[in-house]
Amino acid sequence: MDTASKSWEQKSLVGEIIQGMELAQQLRLSLSATSTSSETREFLVQRILTSYEKALLLLQLSGTPQTPHVDAKSIVPQESRMSANTSPCGDDYNHRSFNDHQDLHEISKKRKIMAKWTDHVIRVSSENGIEGPHEDGHSWRKYGQKDILGAKYPRSYYRCTFRNTQNCWATKQVQRSDEDPTIFEITYKGKHTCSHGSTSVPPPPSPEQKEQKRHKRENISEPQQSQVNQMSFPTNLRVDTENLEDREMMASPFAFTSTSFGCMMSGDDFLSPMFDNENFFSDFSQHLLSPAAGESNYHLAPPSQMRNIAVNGQLSESDHTEIISATNSSTNSPIPDMDFPLDLVEFDPNFQFDAPEFF
DNA sequence: AAAATTTGACCTAG
DNA sequence: CTAGGTCAAATTTT
Hints:
7 strands, DNA-binding
């Protein structure tokens, strides 16, 4: 297990750095695109900073294995000697045939009334096999599943495991795409008030084996697709965050390992074949940004992917973003008592972030 | 034994 | 009434 966790750290570290690079790349693009809102840029900058912050944190962690608590704030980014050579994919990196102008472009167009609850849709596609990489550093408890009209696959409903213990009312829905079973549309609602931060290392072992579980038990239902992908590299991972509202990234309690393992993996050193640590994700730290022009559309892809994207040119193809809102009005009504905690939550968005720190 | 998932019943907005 | 969301008892997993 030791080796495993160590490599995990390393992967995370490299992942963060690479992510930082990618984000910087995007920022550069967005800088040249006049249509990009400053909010989007700010968003990118924040994410870059967060990435590097995390990277530093990881570095420190691996350096001094006996550090009980680390606060990212204290780590001053004074040595940014990490150069672009870090990744073997560095060469592909300069190709800027990356058409994200598309998404950064239609921002702040038709703006709808935002729900009080944060919900945003993320499309996660793990084309290279890993079935359900919905690992976002939080523990979810499934509480329902529904067949959706016109949808091929049922929709699953999850709530935070700590709903009762910590009054955390975050929920998410996972819906597999009809056409692309490899794509999962995840809708997050509410925000985490639980202190389930992953300031250090969250789930080292097996992040996602749900699919595998049922797999081994009963191989019904799941439409057989190429599932012989133990060795396949997650090169095609892509995270699509649409409909970002007001969120802001500080040192968020999340540990999103980057998307871009393809880079490190594509070398000759495949690590554990069973590693399925696709903890990619974006954080939803959220809140105090001006609720004004919010729809930052954000796209992330590993460098090696960029070409593909450019070629395929598929981006925000469908605007299924209408799912926003409508959560609030009804959600609390059935349970009058809950009105209180909910309100508190809304009034104290900072609470959660401070938690790991004043401790 | 405890925790998580499954799944049909139940609830509510439209 | 219908579709989507949630509850909760039964089951399964750990």
